[in-house]
Amino acid sequence: MITIKDVAKAAGVSPMTVSRVVNRTDNVNSTMRKRVLRAVEQLGYVPNLSASKLRGKKSTHWTIGLILRDVANPFSAELHRSIEKSLRDSGSLTLTASNDDDRDYARELVMTMRAHQIDGLIIAPPPGNQSYLGAAAETGLPIVIVDRPSDFEQIPSVISDNYDGMRQATRHLISYGHRRIAYLGDEASVPMTARRDGFLAGLQEATIDTTEAIIRLDQFDPIQARETAVSLLESNNPPTAFIGSRNRINVAIIQALRATKRSEEIAMVGFDDIELAAELDPGMTAVAQNPILIGQIATAILMDMLENNRVQDQSVVVSTRLIKRGSGEISRTQPL
User: Fold this and answer.
1) What does the pLDDT read at residue 55?
2) Spatial separation of the C-alpha atoms in residues 336 and 99, rounded to whole Å
3) Cβ atoms within 10 A of the Cβ of 192, count?
4) What are the residue boundaries of the structural domains of the chain, listed by start?
5) In the CATH hierarchy, which top-level class contains the domain 162-289+322-329?
6) DSSP state of 211
7) What is the DSSP letter of 260?
8) Do domains 63-159+291-318 and 162-289+322-329 have the same CATH topology?
């Protein structure tokens, strides 16, 4: 078995220098670092980080569990990359999984990751009871929740300002003369109910009665949302604007507008930006979340909990940004 002393001998340096390179400390010059890394590669040396932990040494090589809703989702994918990048410089490792918004599966994933001796956890929990996270936190596992508020004081959270983002989107459409605005969404999670409430607040601030708008809160599936949008567009009293509550619903609305050839006369704003949104004609006006910043903040909080062995009691709300690209800037054409 190759040891750190073998690497030191091959590189012509001290074992302490090898340790500093392997642990990614900054006090080794680039020439020395390259010599050590070359010897590590030639000898096939693999540092035993678990052994260091067992010997009681303070380690910055953490193993972090990361459980997101769906790593294929654009928001989750950016969040994943942000957290992974934030952890990279410390030499830490992420174990990543999707919970598919299934609470029982999320609980199983937490148990499995704990069995693999994770040092901390960042999770976007499915809707519903978070008692399994509270129980894990009680054992001393540092946990940070993202994209959902926390049910527990000892578990910090980092979330988007879903309420104000949707309120601003609604007021934006109203500023272009729209009153009959169709909102397609659901109430399955706290972020979604916050977006619904933001929409209603935007209407109320403009003294628009909810009966003037069209509110559909049963739109869980993109295919269903597309059918709903087409049906509304073909009705006797169609909306003059749409608001989509999340990225897949946004795509469904865009498809419906294209299918009915109404893309240039019916306004649309989507909550969550989508890939190639700027390439559409017109470009999709969007309420953009900031998954990169959410990931950076969540990682920083977790690292502070790990390195200083303390419980964080905080909730961070990250602002959204309205990106105007054309679809949300179409003025109302129907008479009052």
Assistant:
1) 46
2) 46
3) 20
4) 4-47, 63-159+291-318, 162-289+322-329
5) alpha beta
6) T
7) T
8) yes
d(C-alpha 72, C-alpha 155), whole Å: 26
Q: Which CATH superfamily is domain 63-159+291-318 in?
A: Response regulator (3.40.50.2300)
State which H helix or E strand residue 315 sits in: strand 315-318
The pLDDT, as a whole number, for residue 56 is 46
What span, in angstroms and rounded, lies between the C-alpha atoms of 132 and 134?
5
Task: Report whether 327 contacts 284 (CB < 8 A).
Answer: yes
pLDDT along the chain (336 residues), means of 10: 85 85 72 84 70 51 93 92 89 92 93 91 94 91 95 93 98 97 96 97 97 96 97 96 95 96 96 86 95 96 89 86 96 67
Distance from C-alpha of 254 to C-alpha of 252, rounded to nearest angstrom: 5
DSSP-based three-state secondary structure for 188? coil
CATH code for the part of the protein at 4-47: 1.10.260.40
pLDDT at 253: 97
Residue 51: the pLDDT is 53
Rounded CA separation 53/281 (Å): 56
